[in-house]
Each structure stands twice: as structure tokens, then as C-alpha cells.
Amino acid sequence: MLSSRSARLAHRQFANACLNRQCFTTIVEARAEIAARQDHYNHVRSHNSLNYLPPV
Fold first, then answer.
1. 54 with 47: CB under 8 angstroms?
2. pTM of structure
3. Main-chain phi, psi angles of 52, to 5 degrees
């Protein structure tokens, strides 16, 4: 489980990477972009806790 500080950091990083850079015209468009960002974060982006390797 994430600590409160970790959760805030994760939310801020997500908001900066996705929500703050997009102007969505429909909820479908927003959901698609959010899903794509989550997939990238969880499967592609390197994580420093994993010695800068992607988790998968």
C-alpha cells in the first residue's frame, strides 16, 4: 500500500504527465488517454526502485 506521501507524488506525476497537458473533448477521449498513460507507467517507463528497469 502506498503511503500518503507516495500517493500524492504519484498523483502529481500523473497529473503533470497527462491531465495538465490535455484538453479532452469527451469522457471517452479522457478515459482512452488515461488508460494509455497507465499502461505506459506500469509496463514501459523505467522505475528507479527497480534499478531503472521497466516493471514487466
1. yes
2. 0.56
3. 60, 35
Using one digit for the tens of pLDDT, what is the confidence trace for 1-56?
A: 557 777 777 778 777 776 666 677 888 988 898 898 888 877 887 777 777 777 76
Distances, alpha carbon 7 to alpha carbons 4, 10, 14, 32, 49, in Å: 5, 5, 11, 22, 15
Q: At what angle do helices 4-17 and 27-43 cross, to 10 degrees?
A: 120
Domain membership flag for residue 8: yes
Contacts of 5 (CB under 8 A, 6+ apart): none
Q: Residue 27 falls within a domain, yes or no?
A: yes
